[in-house]
Amino acid sequence: xxxxxxxxxxxxxxxxxxxxxxxxxxxxxxxxxxxxxxxxxxxxxxxxxxxxxxxxxxxxxxxxxxxxxxxxxxxxxxxxxxxxxxxxxxxxxxxxxxxxxxxxxxxxxxxxxxxxxxxxxxxxxxxxxxxxxxxxxxxxxxxxxxxxxxxxxxxxxxxxxxxxxxxxxxxxxxxxxxxxxxxxxxxxxxxxxxxxxxxxxxxxxxxxxxxxxxxxxxxxxxxxxxxxxxxxxxxxxxxxxxxxxxxxxxxxxxxxxxxxxxxxxxxxxxxxxxxxxxxxxxxxxxxxxxxxxxxxxxxxxxxxxxxxxxxxxxxxxxxxxxxxxxxxxxxxxxxxxxxxxxxxxxxxxxxxxxxxxxxxxxxxxxxxxxxxxxxxxx
Length: 378
Prior knowledge:
This protein is an alpha/beta fold. 32% of the residues lie in helices and 15% in strands. An 8-stranded mixed β-sheet has the order 1-4-8-5-9-10-11-12, sandwiched between helices. A two-stranded antiparallel ribbon has the order 2-3. Strands 6-7 form a two-stranded parallel sheet. Helix 1 crosses helix 2 (165-176) and helix 3 (195-209) runs antiparallel to helix 4 (229-243). The longest helix is centred in the middle third of the chain and has 15 residues, at 138-152. The protein is globular, with a radius of gyration of 20 Å.
């Protein structure tokens, strides 16, 4: 039977006063105009770094995290970091992202909830932004990272690397600032967010905003168990179905009941327990407002918007490129990755990552990603 657990907090966001972990902070202390017409009076990005910037400042690598990721790309779980680093096995001395050679930077995206300015952050009046947080686009997130880059003294990244939504940001970097990106690596991403993903994102937003604990986005003051965790958990279940491959779910779970439970007596199937587990994990480390904000950010992704179309945008990329598609990926069709590989002049062809985990292979198939990173950087 299901084990009773403590009620989740109103928000799983990192908040001032929480252990900082390995985070560092950059604050842009003047008005920041947004593509959608709004303005942030200032913003802060939490970031982590590994290695050292060389005197010529030519060895910096920017890692772009995925949708519910954060700046903790390497390191153990512990105070301030509920999960281990998402590419921990790739970052360190002698590893593909060799910290003896490169200065590695990963920033929590603007609009996120692990130390960067987002809906759970305090607005200038001292209350959480909540429903007042402005609309962001993917280009706003990249523009904020460009401010961080300038502050760090990095005029040109040796590489910008990302998977999934992180790959979207890597592409935006390469198109918006071609002279600031020497190389780019995109894993399981695309030039635009396709219509079926817009629909999927819409369903997730509705799941959260229909939760009675949502309160129009102003719930951050509520006690545990009274925030929009049910809606956020449902959104995670919807998303997770697209993240994992159909064959994996069939092989791992099939129609097997969860141990000790009978689905015909109110119990769960094993796959339901698996999705419940991931939903509960997310609601304890993420913020529902950030989930809604970043879903809208992902939906805004269109590399060709205002640039004469996707082909013209890709043609403007001067960086060397590696584009990798993931076997069994239910988020992006192979043709979406082929479009990138053929449209970027500096890409020698498509790379294949064979993983049973589908879209999440960009996190799990590190044995195959490592050689691609070495090829890109060496």
